[in-house]
Amino acid sequence: MSEDRIRGQRIRRAMADRNFSKTQALAAELKVSVAAVSRWQNGGHVSLKNACDFAQRLDVSLDWLLLGRGNIDWHRDNQLTSAELQWILSLRTQPPKIRSLLTDLVQALSQSPSLRPA
């Protein structure tokens, strides 16, 4: 299946997940034609401006929408907690050997099937 069609599926999914079943209403809010939204849903060209407007209006990740990277709510998961920031800052003060060991540990943990996000 082509990347354009897969993007069209993501557009349809975003509309369904955000309870936007009326193409006409979405088109009016985005100030585009109903035909344009329909084309997007079928894998047709969508400009970057329209993709940004769409992602913002439906509160979905632009990376996910255009590239399939991450998940639909990926844009919400990009803030470091204060604890995470402290860990990073603490890591920077460690000697190279300790930094290397800790980095290897974190990488190994991230590759563990039991610890991967669903």
Secondary structure blueprint with pairings:
Elements: H1 3-17, H2 23-30, H3 34-41, H4 48-58, H5 62-67, H6 82-92, H7 96-110
Helix pairs in contact: 2-3
Order of helices and strands: HHHHHHH
Count of runs of 4 or more consecutive helical residues:
7
Just name the CATH architecture of the largest domain: Orthogonal Bundle
Structural class: mainly alpha
Strands, count: 0
Q: What's the alpha carbon Rg, rounded to whole Å?
A: 20 Å
Global outline? elongated
Q: Main sheet, how many strands, which sense, barrel?
A: none
- What is the CATH homology-level superfamily of the largest domain? lambda repressor-like DNA-binding domains
Measured as a percent range, the helix fraction is 55-70%
**Number of separate domains:** 2
Low-confidence stretches: none
CATH fold assignment of the largest domain: 434 Repressor (Amino-terminal Domain)
Distance between the termini: 24 Å
Mean of all residue-level pLDDT scores: 88
Give the class-level CATH name of the largest domain: Mainly Alpha
Strand content: under 5%
Quick structural gist:
With 118 residues, the chain is mainly alpha-helical. The protein has helices spanning 3-17, 23-30, 34-41, 48-58, 62-67, 82-92, 96-110.
